[in-house]
Amino acid sequence: MALEWMPRDDEIKDHALHTDENWGTEAPCVVYEKKPLTDPKGNVVDGLYVSWIRLNNPRQYNSYTTEMVKGVIAGFENSSLDRSVVATVFTGTGPYAFCTGGNTKEYSEFYSRRSDEYGQYMELFNHMVDSILACKKPVICRVNGMRVAGGQEIGMACDLALSSDLAIFGQAGPKHGSAPVGGASDFLPWYLSVEDAMWNCISCEMWSAYKMKLKNLISKVVPVLKVDGKWVRNPMIVTDKYVDDGEIVYGEYKGGDDAKEARAFVKEHQPNADFELLDKEVDKIVWTFANLFPGCLIESIDSIRQKKKFFWDTMKNAHRHWLAANMGGEAFLGFGAFNTKKITGQDTIDFIKFRQNIAEAKDWDMDMFAEVMGKPKE
């Protein structure tokens, strides 16, 4: 059989919601913490807390495994029902990523070509988005790094987003065998112009935090690089508006030698990123929440969430079935290519050859798939 060199996992997944593996401190997992509420002077307020739900899989850029999805659901349900909690903060471990979506290794090695299994997994994913939209506490997405693919979608399900200016945002589905139908295609046409929403969903183009702020998709962007005691904004990004060939450029990535120098600077300093300013902004918003009637607050929040929920609830079940079926074809190729990039040296298939095979009406079998996948390096 062709493609026998691709890794495969035959350990059956447990899709039951509550298991003993939902919590823990050893990655990959989800960490749930209750931190004391503090006032603007840093004084602890007795008996009141902020719940932090933290994706803890930094080695794989906080991509969520099946067990982590369960942990997120449990975290939001716990926060929602805790009388002492004022607000919920959703974030990730480390300086590089909030979340990069589903765990591609798990997708490729277990779920691909197991469409029913992936359908069950998508029930969990849908429940995860539902748990964010249903949380009876305001939800802040603390974007500590990349918010990509499914990570972008669960981030957009939150009520407000505050971001590191090193973060990047975007979708990856059409390039890697899926579609942004875990929330992005539902939320973005409501947030953006239809053409902006279309391009963001299909292009797999990454947007900077500053561009996200310019598009009104996040609330606040702050620097996280502190060099010689001074805050330094992301040097890779154009942070001033100026006219270039008739277009206003802001929040775009620099090019040429400036970009190389800036990337080297970020690579050197990002491991020591300082989230002091980001956490101060989180605390400021939480304190605002704390000084409002809780019932009036959540009614106001739910009335706005309902617009997101309308489109999400309309489409989520149909998308669940399509995504499950897709695991037998394009997703098998897309996730497989990404998962084996260390073996082949490339993370995507040969799209032109794939389209040529389709034009010739070739069978979608392993021989056809082998023609478009990268070959193991010598």
Keywords summarizing the entry:
2-enoyl-CoA Hydratase, Chain A, domain 1, 18% strand, 15 helices, 45% helix, 4-stranded mixed beta sheet, alpha/beta
Number of strands: 14
Structural class: alpha/beta
Our Rg estimate from Cα atoms comes to: 21 Å
Number of helices: 15
Approximate strand percentage: 15-25%
Shape, per Cα inertia axes: globular
Number of domains: 2
The first-level CATH class of the largest domain is given as Alpha Beta
Instruction: Return residue spans where pLDDT drops below 50 for at least 5 consecutive residues.
Output: none
Order of helices and strands: EEHEEHHEEHEEHHHEHEEEEEHHHHHHH
Distance between the termini: 20 Å
How are the strands of the biggest sheet laid out side by side?
1-2-3-5-7-10
Quick take:
The protein has helices at residues 66-81, 104-111, 115-134, 150-156, 173-176, 184-191, 194-203, 209-214, 256-269, 276-290, 294-326, 330-339, 341-344, 351-359, 366-372, and strands at 29-38, 44-56, 85-92, 97-99, 139-143, 146-148, 160-164, 168-170, 207-208, 220-222, 225-227, 230-232, 242-244, 247-249. The chain is an alpha/beta fold. β2 (44-56), α1 (66-81) and β3 form a beta-alpha-beta unit.
